[in-house]
Amino acid sequence: MKRQRTKLVKMNVLPQAILQSPREHPRFLQRTACPLSDFARIHLIKDKDGIDDYLAKNIKGLSKQEAAAHRNSYKKNICIDMLRQGYHESFSELFALIQKWNALREAAGPGSAIWQQKSLEEQPEKLEQLHHFLTRAEAAGRAGHYEKMYDNQLNLAYCFNDPEEKWLSNYFYEQCFNTAKLVKIDGGKREAQAHANMGLISEEQGNVMKAAKHYEAFYQLTDGLPWKDETGHTYYSLACKHLWRIYTLLADKMLENKEHQQAINMLRKALEIAKKGGDMKTEGEAAYCLSLAYDFAGEQERALSILNTSVKIFTALSDSSGLGRAYAAMAKILVSQGKADETVTCLGDFMKAAENAHLSQSQVDARVLLGNIYNERGNYNEAFEYTSQAFEAAKALNNLPSVGETKTYRGIVEAHKLMVAFKSHIEAEDPISLKYLLEWKENKSDMCTDPLTVELDKETSASKPL
């Protein structure tokens, strides 16, 4: 009836914590917000009295054409303005986007998120942004200034940030990708940006292989160049992170299919890319994932060797989460090899490293792991000592989830201790042992308390005068 619980559970695939969804698109240029024109400001005044007052104060002697403009919808006026200025492509594009928006709303139906949102033609601010950047992109394209055309299209992609507008943002990123191929004067900078954005879109849509091709192109175009995004990170380091993540995702799929050697090869590439990116955190995670792949392939010694590298990196970074995962993986491998003493030594090193680096959560994790190992070995007194220490350390951190977890582990070990005494009394089959069990059942006291002494105490208490 011995219950065993442990944190050293073998994973079938790489840990989900490592395989995060891609972050939002990096900003490769400062977003430009076009100012609303006087024409737009007039149209944003909703009530009739407000419009009349504005016209009386600011505009005198309106022509028939101008008066008609104030009566028309904002969408109609924008479309007329585009056609009058000769921006036929911008008109067609805007009209097609409005139609697609309406089709998506109809397809989603009442109650959907996009249905609750106003249609595109009812949002003057967004129509103004579309008018502003579409016409400038078209003018730049006609003049052969494809870099300006690209920048205007990229600004349009930045304009649509809501989840319901994601398709619009992706549409303009795709337009940027097509335009970037025509730019010849920037050394490939815009083409690199476009590949990064298309990689993110492909990854979000679940097309991992296509995303990998875009990220590889991004990496090749930025190798050795000093370009930076608006946060100050180089494009090259960003490309390395994207490639590391996508290679890890590909390896994860391979491990699911039991293609261990292919996964190892892919993760070795990921580790090399992570090193080139210069981010120690990414390098530590890459080494950790590679060690898991070697473990799944049955190459435990190689796995342990790479885990040591991961431990050194996470210790240098004071990364409590990474350090805990690395040591837990090492302990799991040692346990699978039947090396109980080496496992205890390994976890002792974990506890010392956590104490030296002042990693409070890691100290809790180390004690839990040690407690579980001793529990597995049947050394319940040592197990209870370590799980109790873990419980007290978790309380000191005021970490409620950790408190609950460590309390559970301590309770399991305490139950195992109790089972040992209970079993010995059951197997003895004598009157004294029976008295022990009955006394414990009645009072839930220490099972090792002498029942004769307890009975004597009861009699003494009863004989005392009130």
UniProtKB/TrEMBL annotation:
<dbReference type="InterPro" id="IPR019734">
    <property type="entry name" value="TPR_rpt"/>
</dbReference>
<protein>
    <recommendedName>
        <fullName>Tetratricopeptide repeat protein 29</fullName>
    </recommendedName>
</protein>
<keyword id="KW-0677">Repeat</keyword>
<keyword id="KW-0963">Cytoplasm</keyword>
<feature type="repeat" description="TPR">
    <location>
        <begin position="364"/>
        <end position="397"/>
    </location>
</feature>
<dbReference type="GO" id="GO:0003341">
    <property type="term" value="P:cilium movement"/>
</dbReference>
<dbReference type="Pfam" id="PF13181">
    <property type="entry name" value="TPR_8"/>
</dbReference>
<keyword id="KW-0802">TPR repeat</keyword>
<dbReference type="GO" id="GO:0036126">
    <property type="term" value="C:sperm flagellum"/>
</dbReference>
<dbReference type="InterPro" id="IPR051476">
    <property type="entry name" value="Bac_ResReg_Asp_Phosphatase"/>
</dbReference>
<dbReference type="GO" id="GO:0005737">
    <property type="term" value="C:cytoplasm"/>
</dbReference>
<dbReference type="InterPro" id="IPR011990">
    <property type="entry name" value="TPR-like_helical_dom_sf"/>
</dbReference>
<comment type="function">
    <text>Axonemal protein which is implicated in axonemal and/or peri-axonemal structure assembly and regulates flagellum assembly and beating and therefore sperm motility.</text>
</comment>
